[in-house]
Amino acid sequence: MLAALFIKNAMKIIQIAGTNGKGSVATYVAALMQSAGMRTGLFTSPHIVRKEERIRINGECIPEREMDALFEKAEGNYFTKLTHAAMKWFAENGVQCAVLEVGLGGKKDPTNLYPADVNVITRIGIDHAEILGDTIEKIAEEKCGIIRKGGFVVTQEQRRGAMRIIERTCAMRSAELHVVTKRDAEELGVELRALGSSQPINAAMAMTAVELAGLKPQPGCLSRVRIPARLEYDRERDILIDGGHNADAIEELTQCLDEKFAERDIVLLTAGMHGKDVSSLAEYAKKRGAKVFASAVKNERSRSAEETARIFGAEYAEDESSKAFQMAEKAAKSSGALLVIAGSFYLAGELEELAGFEIK
Q1: Could you report the per-residue pLDDT of 44-68, keeping only the tens digit for each?
Q2: Distance between CA atoms of residues 338 and 214, nearest Å
Q3: Per-residue DSSP letter, 334
Q4: What is the pLDDT of residues 222-271, one digit of tens each?
Q5: What is the C-alpha separation between 298 and 197, in angstroms, rounded?
Q6: pTM value?
Q7: Pairing relationship of beta strands 316-317 and 239-242 according to DSSP bridges
Q8: Residue 122 to residue 141: CA distance in whole angstroms
Q9: What letter would DSSP give residue 219?
Q10: What angle is formed at CA 202 by the lines to CA 198 and CA 208, rounded to 5 degrees?
Q11: Sheet with 176-180, edge to edge strand ranges
């Protein structure tokens, strides 16, 4: 019913799948669509502080009461109900363009119920292996489930196995593939707020997708876009916060620390979920001689502070994240070290106010 309504209203939809960079690309796409004068709906996950962040129109979060009412009326599992709630809210509020971030995989994701004008596949890596598969090729197959017959597909340069699957799927479905390169990112010529090395590529993919949707965006708007909890640096507080929790995201974090903060001592505050491999972050912390404070988050899948401390060889363990933050910040200030909060979007959300960041 809702999908038919969107087709009838000729709403433009851009759908984004991938392992890393989905949220960034979605946020950039929404900003570019708004710069083209379009009333834009943005559906993303996870949220950082409150659930209403997942559903926005022109940057404004859905009111809590409205979201709860729409969610209760929808059918299906949690994410399906959330997706339908978002789309109904967009339909009822005159949205002209919708940006849909896939929750998990692609093939069976509820965002696939709404035909997209352009599909974007960001960098593919190993994550949720117990659900999506334990090889790049298996995961790519799941992500390519969003590709539609005769549609437009935007991606970046991928690992060989992933690119082979993307190219094959596009050929089978007669989809037009556009591969964004580092040169495309350089030619975009916009200074971005987020520090990550992947952000220029993410911005260039967003630009390509919006242009393929037939719009004329203003790339200058990208310099003002905030990507919450994705390598955000608060210069005044001297805090770097990042929610990345898989191997590729951790690699980008450590690369950023080596390139931009190579001479700094580090205090690391971290927490994480069961099933997430943070061994590379633990190894990096040891290599950099970081003082590590282990904590936990208010989530049933969270590791305890003691479990995380064992992984990192940390001396300090405190389950209450606010207390752990106070301890870590004090240690960083007393030694002149950079405070790094990393390992979990849930941790970033719990510390949002304390760390001096603000969701807008």
Answers
A1: 998 888 999 999 999 999 999 999 9
A2: 44
A3: H
A4: 999 999 899 999 999 999 999 988 888 999 999 999 999 999 999 999 99
A5: 31
A6: 0.92
A7: unpaired
A8: 13
A9: G
A10: 145
A11: 60-61, 55-57, 40-43, 97-101, 12-17, 118-121, 152-156, 176-180
